[in-house]
Design a protein that fits this description.
The protein is built from one helix and six strands. With 117 residues, it is of the alpha+beta class. Strands 4-3-5-6 form a four-stranded antiparallel sheet, covered by helices on one side. A hairpin with a 5-residue loop joins β5 and β6. The termini are far apart.
């Protein structure tokens, strides 16, 4: 026969562990499930950030970037990626593939930003 563990709280209430577990287990399970989803999303965002930073750092940059300023990433007709100060609507060349808009933060990490901002 198993023992029933009794716990006292600060108000003097006594709880038997066997009665407590079934009531608290779903709440604990929900917490861990939600925490797992948060960590999974954070991990996916980290991978996405890493991917974009790798792409930008492997691209040609012919200037010293200023933190917080928008830059435009393109691929030219030879397949070479480069970062530019020129927005897509200001180019007269049609042989460029626009990839995205990026800003560098204070940690020198590139952030992909919405090009409508």
């Amino acid at each position: 026969m198993g023992k029933i563990l009794k716990l006292d709280d600060i108000r003097g209430h006594v709880y038997e562990l066997e009665n407590w577990k079934p009531k608290q287990a779903p709440q604990a399970q929900k917490y861990f499930t939600e925490k797992y989803k948060e960590i999974e999303l954070e991990y996916k965002n980290l991978l996405e950030d890493f991917k974009w930073n790798k792409i930008v750092y492997e691209s040609d940059v012919m200037f010293v970037p200023v933190m917080g300023k928008k830059y435009y990433l393109y691929t030219n007709s030879k397949g070479k990626r480069f970062l530019s100060l020129i927005a897509p609507e200001d180019w007269r060349k049609n042989d460029l593939e626009f990839i995205g808009v990026f800003k560098q933060d204070s940690r020198q990490k590139w952030q992909k930003v919405d090009d409508n901002k």
